[in-house]
Design goal:
alpha+beta, 2 domains, 341 residues, rod-shaped, single chain, 8 helices, 7-stranded mixed beta sheet
Length: 341
Amino acid sequence: MAQPPEDDEDDEYAEPPRTRAWHDGVLVAEGFPVDDVSEYLKQDETVVWLDLCGPQRTAMRVISRELNLDPVAVEDAVSRHERTKLDRYTDYLFLNLYLPVVDGADMRMFEVSAFVTDSAVVTVRPEPGFPVEELVRRWDRSPDITRGDSASTTVGLLLYALLDLVVDHQLGAAQAFDDEADALEELIFDDAFPVREIQERSFRLRKNLFMLRRVSLPMREILNTLLRRDVRLVPQPLIPYYQDVYDHALRVGEFTDGLRDLIANLLDTRIALQGNRLNEVMKKVTSWAAIIAVPTAITGFYGQNVPYPGFGHAWGFWFSSLAIAALSVGLYVLFKRRDWL
């Protein structure tokens, strides 16, 4: 029997373990001690769910003995930041998933690992935050298609709810980013054109979108593997449900791909608009420089140390002043008509 590597750390839980048991698709027990899991696993057509939040390696040792888990899978379950994946072992499946939660402009990823056998589902979470209560509510609202059926169908329904929850949150995050892209578009075409805010929000949006794409893209491969007819991992009555989750995963991929192109176009548009605004500023500065050059040229001419028309006469001063005013006003009107000012 495979054993996980020894570890001297004590069992520590960020949240109390949660347990449930179903018999013939009907919930028969909840909240029983972890030590009683083995007793329920001995009963025919009984499915057990165990949820561990923040367990250390010694906490996983008991479960790995009961379910004959491979130490490699146990190591992945207790390690942080494993990639999204589905690994098939002889007697069970191991999944590592990420559920995004968007709060304003910030997004957090909550990691969850799951061991799925013919009669048990064990979820392992490194930290609180994963919506376990929502998962339980989905199980309670599940269609009554497992009553009197095999334990594998009950397990398949539990796994379906978990995958559906993760993909729904990924889709919700993609839709939130789509709304953020619309808000960013309005900022770009706003007359105020807040450059710093646009840069900060576009950088944060691209970063969040990259994180979402990295964890959501493998979901299609996971669901595609589960739905393959030759491996027969999903019971026949649940295939339409898994197919629905697969369709949602495809939508997440379409969302992220479309948003990537949209954000790239928005950034190109921002650069183009910023260049146009810079040209407008340069045009105005140049126009004002031309207006200022007129009095400078005239006063410079009359400042020569040689006689000039009107030298030593009052009318010469008035003539130069009138020329400065007339030419400056004329240039101002000309530039204004051409929208250079």
